């Protein structure tokens, strides 16, 4: 028997989905909720196999519910249900650990099949969707903070290099010995995979523009 929990802020939708699922011999609806807060409180207590979660809720969203309950119940399969074909919500749902994502326009028999699919441990994400997710992750990785490896002091010194200050001037500004500044500059160039000070100055200038300064 597949134990299912339903989360949707529309009672009519919940009743319709519940009736549809309860008509199946192998599916049992063990609980319902109309808010994110209620779902987060009830799902761990009821221990369903599948949680059918509405993406948009009055007090949050199903993606956050998915992330929260799966942190406590990693074995739970979350099936996201929404009225909108929203790429952003789809990406967020996948990153939260959702096993599948279907639109409310789905045929009843297909929804039943979707519940059975995720309950069996399979994913409802088609190859095209998976490829899109992987590309998005790669794009995000490329946009990470280029200064992530630098310490706070090294970031400060990079900014001053961008302003055209010499090591001596930087030392005077930060109350450091010129040799100490030289070591900082050498370290930050190494961390940024740069050979020349001018490269660091160009990077600092570009970051300043990106910040709108």
TrEMBL record:
Stored SMART domains: HTH_LUXR, REC
Record key words, sorted: DNA-binding, Phosphoprotein, Transcription, Transcription regulation
HTH luxR-type domain boundaries: 143-208
A Pfam family this chain is assigned to: GerE
Boundaries of every Response regulatory domain copy: 3-119
InterPro entries: CheY-like_superfamily, NreC/VraR/RcsB-like_REC, Sig_transdc_resp-reg_C-effctor, Sig_transdc_resp-reg_receiver, Tscrpt_reg_LuxR_C, WalR-like
Modified residues (4-aspartylphosphate): 54
CDD domains on file: LuxR_C_like, REC_NarL-like
Designated name of the protein: Response regulator transcription factor
Species assigned in the record: Microtetraspora glauca
